[in-house]
Specification:
- The complex is a heterodimer of chains A (478) and B (388).
- Chain A contains 14 helices and 15 strands.
- Chain A is α/β, with parallel strands linked by helices and 478 residues long.
- In chain A, the strands form three sheets. Chain A has a seven-stranded mixed β-sheet with strand order 2-1-3-4-8-7-9, sandwiched between helices.
- Chain B has 388 residues and is an alpha/beta fold.
- Chain B folds into two domains: 258 residues, Rossmann fold (3-Layer(aba) Sandwich), CATH 3.40.50.970; 128 residues, Rossmann fold.
- Chain B is built from twelve helices and 17 strands.
- In chain B, strands 2, 3, 4, 5, 6, 7, 8 and 14 form an eight-stranded mixed β-sheet that branches. A six-stranded mixed β-sheet of chain B has the order 11-13-12-15-16-17, with helices on both faces.
- In chain B, helix 1 packs across helix 2, helix 1 packs parallel to helix 6 and helix 9 crosses helix 12.
- The chains are: A alpha/beta (478), B alpha/beta (388).
- At the A-B interface, strand 2, helix 2, helix 4, helix 9 and strand 11 of A face strand 1, helix 1, strand 2, helix 3 and helix 4 of B.
Amino acid sequence: MSAPQVTSPNPFDSGARDPWCPGCGHTLLIRALQKALAAGFDPHDVVLVTDIGCIGMADGLFRCHTVHGLHGRAPALAAGIAMTLPRPGMKVVVLMGDGGAAIGLQHVLECARLNVDLTLVVSNNQNYGMTGGQQSAYTLPGVRTTTSPGGAVLDAFDLARMLEPFGVPRVRVPATDRDALGEALARSLDHRGFSYLEVLTWCPSYAGKLNPDSVTPRDLSALFEARGQPTGVWPGGEARPVMRFEGAPRPRSAEPLPVTSAHRLEGVVHLLVAGSAGKGVQSAAEVFARAAVRAGLHVALRSEYPVTVGKGFSASQLCLSARPLGSPVAEHWDLALVCSPEGWAYVRERQAGIRRLVLDASLADGAPGGGPVPVDPTAVGAVPHTVTRLWLAAPRELGYRPANPEAGEEPQRGARTARPPALVERADFVKGDARGAAFAALAWALKEQGWFDLDALRAEVERVSHEGQRRSLLAALE
Amino acid sequence: MPDLALVEGSWLVAHGALHAGVDYFVGYPITPASGIFTEMVRAGVGLPTTDEITALQYLIGASLNGRKAMTATSGPGFLLMAEGIGAALAMEAPLVVVLVQRLGPATGSATVSAQGDVGMVGNIVSGGFRCPVLCPSSFEECAELAAHAVNVAETLRVPVILLTEKDMVVGKRTVDLSTLRLPAPVSRHRWEGPPEGFRTYDNWDEYDVPPFRALGDREVQLRLTASTHDALGNISTYSERVRASAERLFITRRLDVLPLPVLDADPGAEVLVISYGFTAYAAREAVQELRARGQRVSHLVVRTLYPLHVPEIRAACQGVRRIVIPEENATGQFRTVLLGEGVLRNLPVERLVSLNVMGRPITPDEIALAVLDAPQGGQADGPQQVVP
């Protein structure tokens, strides 16, 4: 009788020859996995995600959907797949080695935390086999590798124990125990949610060769047991929801701001309003900016605050323009409104770029709380305004003409020779309520400058839905 | 009818992405890109994760399932994503990474805008492969190019980088939403041939892109890998057999799906300003002011930084004697890219003026003075490099 032709009846077997060294433990694992998958799944329902390293070469042996990624990232890649699988009834299996489980440890923990629906199989062969048998974080104490020739000294990671708090099912089983491995694989694949399976394998070319006394196929369980990592089956805790991410786009539309009133601005004006964190500076600027848009102005609004948003300064830069805006960033301001010592701390750094500075009266020298505010009138406005600097700093062919003060001409902004008038004034913004100060300051400026109607600002305040904020803003308007 | 709104660049990026069909956004907080993350969470498609490395892996996984995937970050996070971007390129998993530039190096200044990552984004994939890099030059283009980026990713099955700046996405501005020119959503080319004819990396279409089938397909087997592979997806050492599949990943031949540079030509102008990103605002203002004063100057805004539309850029340089390139970085990174791609080869350009500023925006005045070849006054502290 002639020998029967070797065929593979397993639908998950691609028929490719396994790439591993003779006697490698990975081979046993892979054949057991193919058998377990065939017992419960159609190949089109399975996605096998492989890591890097010897075990990562397994994908070519499988006939199912396979994805081969980067070192240590297989659990994260698989999680991205598992939480967006296109249909129910599919299974994601991850194969990685002990090296991958070290570099990708966080991904494993995150899969457990989220309870991603996947089966993670770690083939723990005590070393990096593909790169020359180096020690891994899972190499047990005493095991010799090419980078621990005298035997590993440090304790090894125990992933099964690390995963315990997440209540996920865990198994540690030697690849040689065919029945226990088959049973563990079947149970893991049947589990909905994250499950962990650690298969003890040996590397015949490195760890096996370097530790002939301890790392042999038959002795693996005893070795692990002696190092405090016994084999075993630990069922999961209470069932937890499985992580899915469908993604249901519901785009947020921007609030329309139709133009309902007119403005009286001709050019561009750059404003700066600064105060203390938590005192309504940002919301004041936002309401003011919206009113300006409804008045037909083009507006740019920038918020500035320290990384700890609840303390220190809070500032808003506003650019109002009659024409469509160019660059929305200003380093120079026509008017700066300062409501508190914290606000001054912010503005002070920028005072050289400010043409006109208006400080709240509380910032007067010796004011309670604020202390003397060292305003140096000569520092304010020391650097000319940028928007029209081109008129003057540029060569004559651009139309440069120095101002003639005797003819009553304003010194043109931007002239390096003719400094603009720097004004420092005091006003009363706080009026007992520091929360409304920034809005009071902006309203003060609007009343004085008349860029648009105060009524338009009042109408915008009326639209504020938060009652407390609305009342505070209305009070600041009066 | 104008549709005015006061919106942030972050909102516009999200708006464009959602228009193009992004339904899976994975985010990790980082200044100044967090606003985009927040918008996508509010829009019901944002998933928070533990770090940027994980974010990219999730995106690849979802992309292979057929989802339109995106994330946003700034320099430090982008570097963590780099390995995943390379993997996505190799696997041909389309996705979009928004890189909001802040001042480097390393953590640098989180809240200071910059254009210092222009060189980096062209060189993050090992082996010299490149992802398309789109760069919005206005608030409106934040939305338009975000949508284009998704479409390019889908069409070419590549990761696409949307490169922008802190000053572009943080802060609100009046935008007339009725003027947005959002491209129609495009989805990746699906394999419609017989199942037995499907091979994961074969049957390239007119863009040399293999038609797509999602994981879990019931008709075909997917074999995806980030390692060198043959047309079937079998891992294979580089050889003649896999050469074509690897070379295909160089994207320089697929220019027609990428946003073209925009030329504002002034007939007879001997000076050309080449700008990109946020600096284009200052450049537009400078050009407007100069023309109002009788100067002749042209302006080219480049919107695809990699790969370059070399013929179009060369055409814009015809007849030009001086080129001014303003950039918010210390060394003129984009100028280096232009020169490296041979854009000016054999053209009679006499001077290439690189106007570089770090840590603050370039002003229109500085650009205007560079155009006029006038000395920088006032506070123009940035080094002005003159490249003969």
